[in-house]
């Protein structure tokens, strides 16, 4: 599975980074980004939870 964060929607709340730090991180501007090319199976559940709980719907499945 591949994910992406739409920077123009991200408000930097940190829900994704705190729930799945192995997939999401903050850039220098305090906005989230996906730090891995492909989400591994062991991180999939928490990565999807972050996607579903993003208050601005900034996280998208690419595949």
Can you walk me through this structure?
The chain has a single domain, classed as Alpha-Beta Plaits (2-Layer Sandwich). The protein is built from two helices and four strands. It has helices spanning 15-19, 41-53; strands at 3-5, 24-26, 32-34, 59-61.
Feature tags:
63 residues; alpha+beta; Alpha-Beta Plaits; two-stranded antiparallel sheet; 2 helices
What would you say about this model in short?
By secondary structure, the chain is an alpha+beta fold. 29% of the residues lie in helices and 19% in strands. The protein is built from two helices and four strands.
Quantity of strands, as a count: 4
Runs in which pLDDT lies below 50 for 5 or more consecutive residues are none
The chain-level mean pLDDT equals 96
CATH top-level class: Alpha Beta
Roughly what fraction of the amino acids lie in strands? 15-25%
Count of individual helical segments: 2
- What kind of oligomer do you see? single chain
The profile of the biggest β sheet is: 2 strands, antiparallel
Secondary structure: elements and pairs:
Blueprint: E1 3-5, H1 15-19, E2 24-26, E3 32-34, H2 41-53, E4 59-61
């Amino acid at each position: 599975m591949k994910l992406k964060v739409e920077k123009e929607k991200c408000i930097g709340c940190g829900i994704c980074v705190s729930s799945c730090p192995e997939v999401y991180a903050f850039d220098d501007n305090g906005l989230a980004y996906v730090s891995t090319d492909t989400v591994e199976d062991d991180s999939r559940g928490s990565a999807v939870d972050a996607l579903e709980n993003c208050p601005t719907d900034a996280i998208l499945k690419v595949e």
